[in-house]
Amino acid sequence: MDLRNKLKRSGGFLAGVALTATAFFFIHGKTSDPYFEISKNLDIYADLFKELNTYYVDPIEPGKLVKTGVDAMLEDLDPYTNYITEADIEDYRFMTTGKYGGIGASMRRKGEEIYIGDVYENSPSQKAGLHPGDLVEAIDNQPVKGKTVDDLSSLLKGTPGTQINMKIKDAFTNTVVQKLITRGEIEISSVPYYSLVGPQNNIAYVRLTQFTQGCGRQVRDAFDSLKRAQPSLKGLVLDLRNNPGGLLEEAVNICNIFIDRGQLVVSTKGKIQDMDKDYKTNGPVWDKDIPLTVLVNHSSASASEIVAGTVQDLDRGVIIGERSYGKGLVQVVRPLGFNAKLKLTIARYYTPSGRCIQAIDYAHRNVDGSVGYVPDSLKMSYKTKVGRTVKSGGGVMPDVLVKDEPMSMIAVTLYTKNYLFDYATEYARQHPAIASASKFAMTDAEFNSFSKWLENKDYSYKTETEAGLDSLKKIATKENYYDGAKDEIEALKSKLSHDKKQDLLKHKEQVKEMLENEIASRYYFTRGRIAQGLQYDKELDKALALIGQTGDYNALLKAGK
Predict the structure, then answer these.
(1) pLDDT by residue (tens digit) across 528-554?
(2) Which one, 39, 156, 224, 540, has least CB within 10 Å?
């Protein structure tokens, strides 16, 4: 059936809906009936679409046009309500399962060129001998220069068992080679790293990166493994930093590891009361007494906040880090026609104390359409199980606040301009092996070599102070004050002008940590990044110190805090 016939069919259906609603209007005499408004506007939309398709001067792409319209409509709601087309369904499945068909490598764009970014451990990419830093020249004889990372992703993904031919320039040998790679089912583990930590190696550490299907079992298995290795565990650290969330049911399963059967974890409440639900732990607890710390930051959201909020409300453990993101909304996926789906917000969730941690008020927009955070005056106080005060409307506030050091401009610039990535490739080419990721650190001589390598590179940038001064100069010129203050402004500009070499020395430790982390990933993959980063981890250090001081740990979980 062609597009015009489909539209006629849709128009007939919509007209039928409109006729029914119109009859309802005449019978009941209501001008504000919502069903009439819906059918009227759907009819207008169908007519508009038909007119565009018939008379618009250039050919239109129906799917693209509709998606643009739907996306614009959904922008008035919240950022979590999304239209998922059939073409995007694999990306959605990956978000919920951590699995996709592909080669197991990320891509990185530098200018017009595309390079291999990370290579996943035991993936088809690793088995084929790809390295981070390899230049991708063509895929199945199709040149990739100028393409976006998303373009390349669609070419690389596919059914496991199918093959793909990649033409690359090897970063180690500098030669152009052809790689025939068989796609596989790539599963990104939600628990990429766990280990025993602390001075006595008697504290269990587990990093959880997303709440996908089965991640509760993965976390429990990780703790089981660490308990077998160290039967006398003194405490647990669950790291939820930068975890965007995922499946609510898995958040309940994670809580069940530390909280006994039958305990309320989270409640959901929305427009349709029949869909409101209480979620309780329903399995045997792994350990309900061992000291527990949970690490969060501002990128910990949704299911991460359910776990952190529940642990806090039940006084089961201590939350350490930064205030979490504040996403207290629940989404479900509804099927649409032609294999499309709608992910939409249907409820808010509430932790055991009764608080909702949603930080942004999407229901009440400003005149310009922007949204704002829930004001402090509207945040309500609730009580934990033992009587500690916690607040709604602003994420989960940690029991122990540890602020991250802000990124320096030079560190940001070196990262965004790919100089850390490029030098890690150089380093890996020259060093066949390094120390274990948890012990690897660059010497001063090695960092000096990096500094020398940077000398002829362009990594210029403006500090916030310089940008502010430029803005002042423009305003002064516009208001005719600049000539009178020119000498003072230029003198201040000279005084505040930064020196890149001095900035590199000033922020040496921060840049060095980032570079070491990139280098460690070349030898030990994602687990290497995490293990190496723990060497400088202030939040982890605080967790270890707190578990080691039983009195301080217990004091934080008492009423009156």
Answers:
(1) 999 999 999 999 999 999 999 999 999
(2) 224
